[in-house]
Amino acid sequence: xxxxxxxxxxxxxxxxxxxxxxxxxxxxxxxxxxxxxxxxxxxxxxxxxxxxxxxxxxxxxxxxxxxxxxxxxxxxxxxxxxxxxxxxxxxxxxxxxxxxxxxxxxxxxxxxxxxxxxxxxxxxxxxxxxxxxxxxxxxxxxxxxxxxxxxxxxxxxxxxxxxxxxxxxxxxxxxxxxxxxxxxxxxxxxxxxxxxxxxxxxxxxxxxxxxxxxxxxxxxxxxxxxxxxxxxxxxxxxxxxxxxxxxxxxxxxxxxxxxxxxxxxxxxxxxxxxxxxxxxxxxxxxxxxxxxxxxxxxxxxxxxxxxxxxxxxxxxxxxxxxxxxxxxxxxxxxxxxxxxxxxxxxxxxxxxxxxxxxxxxxxxxxxxxxxxxxxxxxxxxxxxxxxxxxxxxxxxxxxxxxxxxxxxxxxxxxxxxxxxxxxxxxxxxxxxx
Length: 433
Hints:
10% of the residues lie in helices and 26% in strands. By secondary structure, it is mainly β. The strands form 3 sheets. Strands 5, 9, 10, 11, 12, 14, 15, 17 and 18 form a 9-stranded antiparallel beta sheet that branches. It is globular, with a radius of gyration of 21 Å.
């Protein structure tokens, strides 16, 4: 069933069997991917040569586990010894010593996971439901599969964002969020002239509808530095996303991303390449978040903090009640090895214009900002970390949405939520074509 480039190439019988079973599995993908609105993996023939390459890549990123956990949503979570995680395969991290803990921003106390603090995140991921946890000394990593790779445009593109094209007509004072390759945004952002050492916000989580397999919908924080119209943009990103191509379903998932060259060759989502160093044994990056917000009902939100450790220089991430997840080593970056120059908060989608019109992929809840609390998505309590390692409320922000007929944003301020904004939209509608 496979296509062989050379007649003289010899393949083992087990690999031929594997190829056969992969095709059978692809035919049954709709059964394997349960609880989704679309059949994201479709039948396709796989050449043996390509399959060999995929298997070799999976062997590199799926490290041998100490313990394997089957999640109720179908994910497989491998508990990998922290010294064996993919991050340390990076050439720049050959002699890297895993940092145990950073200096927290002033006024922030690290969650010691005793008492009530642990409840803030303990049941936020679906794989927690069966009661099994990764043992100390290991980190949970969502196992990547052949299906995951085959949904990508190519093996090279697996786990990566498409670069955003930047037209010459973009506003000089605006961030790199103009439409390119179908990327659309509704964001708040800081000016680009100050030094930034981190950011924090609380965002509510939804399960937006995504029309096409190669589209996504996400809500995140960006910490940026470098040239927005060149090839040296550094970006650190974290939030939640729905990405059928990446995960094979429509569940919202905790994610991270990084790049040091404008999304060209460096960086990836989660732990799908060497880079991000995970330190926590009970939070799996790339795992599904549950429960999620419901329209005109209970709202569920998460808090994410990203900051530069003032002593070592690594960029750390905490989740929920100041629980340390891991960090991006300073060695990965050029400009961010020093500091950031801009922070963005908000939503992003990819619109492929399937059938020649704007798709109906939702941003956030799928409702416009004007619908307000319980209906629209929000970010609240926007803060930045300054050069003194102090968290400061953000009072002056700019907002941007490329096409307000499809997705929009409205910002405001009150004593309880500080600076906040509602954002999102349904995509295709009579005014968004």
